Amino acid sequence: MPDRDHCLALDAADPLRAFRDEFVLPEGVVYLVGNSLGALPRRTAERVRRTVEDEWGKKLVGGWNASGWYAQPLTVGDRIAPLIGVGPGQVVAGNTTSIAIFQALAAALKLRPDRRVIVSDADNFPTDHYIVQGLAGLLGEYEVRDLAERRFDDAAVVLLSEVDYRTGARQDVAAVTAEAHAAGALIIWDLCHSAGVMEVDVSAADFAVGCTYKYLNAGPGAPAYLYVNPRHHETAENVLSGWFGHAEPFAFETDFRPAEGIRRFAVSTPHVVSFAALDAALDIWERVPMAQVRAKSKALTSLFVELVGDALELVSPADPEARGSQVSYRHPDGYPVMRALIDHGVHGDFRAPDILRFGFAPLYTSYTDVHDAAATVLEVLGKELWRDEKYARRLAVT
Amino acid sequence: MPDRDHCLALDAADPLRAFRDEFVLPEGVVYLVGNSLGALPRRTAERVRRTVEDEWGKKLVGGWNASGWYAQPLTVGDRIAPLIGVGPGQVVAGNTTSIAIFQALAAALKLRPDRRVIVSDADNFPTDHYIVQGLAGLLGEYEVRDLAERRFDDAAVVLLSEVDYRTGARQDVAAVTAEAHAAGALIIWDLCHSAGVMEVDVSAADFAVGCTYKYLNAGPGAPAYLYVNPRHHETAENVLSGWFGHAEPFAFETDFRPAEGIRRFAVSTPHVVSFAALDAALDIWERVPMAQVRAKSKALTSLFVELVGDALELVSPADPEARGSQVSYRHPDGYPVMRALIDHGVHGDFRAPDILRFGFAPLYTSYTDVHDAAATVLEVLGKELWRDEKYARRLAVT
User: Fold this and answer.
1) Is this complex's ipTM strictly greater than 0.90?
2) Are A74 and A266 in contact (CB under 8 A)?
3) Residue A128 touches partner B, C-beta closer than 8 Å
4) pLDDT at residue B197 is higher than 70
5) Average of pLDDT values for B347-358?
6) Which of A97, A150, A265, B190 is 20 to 30 A from A26 in CA distance terms?
7) Mind listing the domains of chain A with CATH numbers?
8) Which of A56, A133, A255 faces B220 most closely, judged by CB atoms?
9) Do A256 and B397 touch (CB under 8 A)?
10) Running DSSP on this structure, what letter comes out for residue A320?
11) B276 interface with A at CB cutoff 8 Å
C-alpha cells in the first residue's frame, strides 16, 4: 500500500506539478469537486478586471471591435478545438450546454428528415435527456428511445456522454460513432466530463457539446461550446437563428441568411465578462500536454481506489481505461457520509440517491491529496463519524 | 435657443444629477451610445472581483449555495420586475434576448394550437424576426405575417418592440396588447430599448423579454430576462427544458417535470460572473425614480432635436411622448458623418443604410452633454468635416 512518503515522491516526479501553482486552492482542504466546478486560475481575476475596467469601462461600445468581443464565440471556440480533437473553424463558444444540445439535436433531425427516433441515455446527465424530451414534445411525432435498447437502425440521432456524470464510466467514442454511422444515424457527444482530463477526439462525430466550468476551470456558469463537423457546415440549420449567426449581422437584413461555416451556429451577444474568465483558463490549456494529463488522471483515480479499498462499494469501472477522472462509490447513507467528509476537509459531492463522487483534476490535484483524502475516508467510515446527527439534516441544495 | 449656461442651470436643478457620479465616463467624450452598451457603474468592478475571488476562489463549488448562485435567475429576475411593471416571481434572468424570444414564442404557439400565424415586425431588430423565422422553419405550417398588415384575427402570437431600435418610435403597449387580446392572439413585448428609460408596464401582456446591457448598464453580453404572465405559469411550456426548470433539479429524475411558477422557464447553469455585473447595476436601479428618468429623457431628446434643428433630417417622432430615449437622423453619407463625429468626441452610432443614432441615458447624460454634442454636430456638418477621406473607409464592424 503506497504511503504518504511514496505519494510525496510521486508528486516530486510529476511532470504536471508546476500547474498546481497556477490555481487558488483552499487551505486545509482536499478539493475533489473539479468535475463539478474547477478551481480558480490565478490569472483569471486580472483578466476579468481588465475586461470590466479597461475594455468596458474605457472603450465602452468600442470594445466590441477593439477588444475582440464580437469575435469571441469563434476565437474562443478555436482555442477549445484542440482539447476535443478537432480543427479551427469547427467550434463556437457561448450559451450553455443545454442550449447547445438543443441546437445540435434540432439540426440533426433536420438532416435526417426520414427518421423519427432519437436515441438518448436515460442515465445521462438529466439536462441532456430533458432537452431531448422538450424538443420531441415541441415537434411531435418523435420517439425517444433509451440507449439501453442499443438499436440505432432507424434512429435520426444518438446523444450520449463520453463519461457518465454519475459513475465515471467512459464510452468508446470511436466505436459508438462508427456504430451510429453504420446504422445511418447521426451522433452528438456530450464532453462535459471528459474534456480536460483525457485526449478527446470527436472529429468523426457529427456534433459535440460541452461545458467549460468543470475540468476546464473557466468559472461558474462559464460559456459552453458546440462542435459541428465541417461536412455539415453548409447544410445544417441553426434553429436558434439569432443575429450572430447571420451572414452579415450588421447589414440588418429582414431575412435570416446563415453565415458560412461554424459561425452560423452562433446565436447572439456573447456573455463577455464570463468569456473573459474562459479565455484566461484557456491560457493554461495551451501549455498542457494532454497525454500527461490522462496518464496522471488514471494514476490518481487508481491510487484512490487502491487506498480506499473495500471500505466503500465502487460504482466506477475498476479498469482506469474504462473511466474518466472521477471515482464514484455507493453508500446507503451517502448524504451524511459526504457531509462528514466535507466537515473533515475532503470535498467530494453526493448525487441522489446514494452516490459519492470524487473528481480528480490532474492540473491541481496531487498524489499526496489523494493519500490524505483516502485516509480521511477510511477514518470517517472506520470510526463511523458520519453517524453524528449534525450530518443528517439535508441542506437546501447538495 | 438654449445656450450652454442654460444647460448648466438645468444640470444644477436635475434631481438625477447625483447618479452621474456612479458611472465611469470617458474623458473628453460625450457618450451617446447607452442605447447600445451602457456605461460601467463604479460599483461593478468590486462586485465582479468579489464573485471571482471571494465566492468562486474561496468557496469553490460551495458558492452555488453560499453565494446564492443557484437562485440568481429568480432573485435577479425579481430585481428586474419593478423596471417593467410586473411583480415578484414573474421574471427569470439568464441567457440572451434571442433565446428568451425563442422560449416565449414556442410557449405561445403551444398555448394557441388552433392558430398558425405569427405576426412579427419586419422592421424590428433583426434577431427578433430571425428567431421567428427559425422557429417557424423548424415547426413548418406557420405563416409569418408582417406587422404592417395589422391583422391579428387569426394570429397565435404577436411579437414587437416597445421602442424601435432604429427610429426610436414608441408603441402604445396597453393599446396594442388590448388589440392583440381582442383578436384572440397572445403578445410578446421586446423591451430592449425601453426598460430603463421610461415607466414600462407589460403586466397585461403574455410575455416580455429584454436585455440588460443597454440602458440597464449591466455590461457587454449581460444576461437577458423573460417575463411570463402568471396566468400562463401552470400551462405554458418551456421548450428549452433544461435541468434548472425542473421541479427538483437535484433529484436527477429521468423525466422532465416542470417547476412551479416562473422557475420552469429557467434553462440551465447561469453565467455567474456576468450575473455579478448585472446584480451590481441593479443596486443603482433600486434607488431610481423612473418618472424622473422619463421626464429627463424627454427633456434631453427634445433639447437635442431643438439644437440640431434642420441640420439633419429627423427620423424619430417629433413628439417626445412618441419616442424612446434616442434620436435618429437620416443622412446619405451617414457612415463618414458618424465617424467624423466620433473623431470629434461625440459618440453615437450608425445603422445601415443611412441612420445616425444618438442615445440619451438619463442617469449619466447631462444637459450640458447634449449642448456640446449638438454643437459638434453643427460644426461637423456646417464645415463638412466628414468629407475628409479618412472617414470614408469602412471599419470591420460599425
Assistant:
1) yes
2) yes
3) no
4) yes
5) 94
6) A97
7) 4-41+289-391 (3.90.1150.10), 70-285 (3.40.640.10)
8) A56
9) no
10) G
11) yes
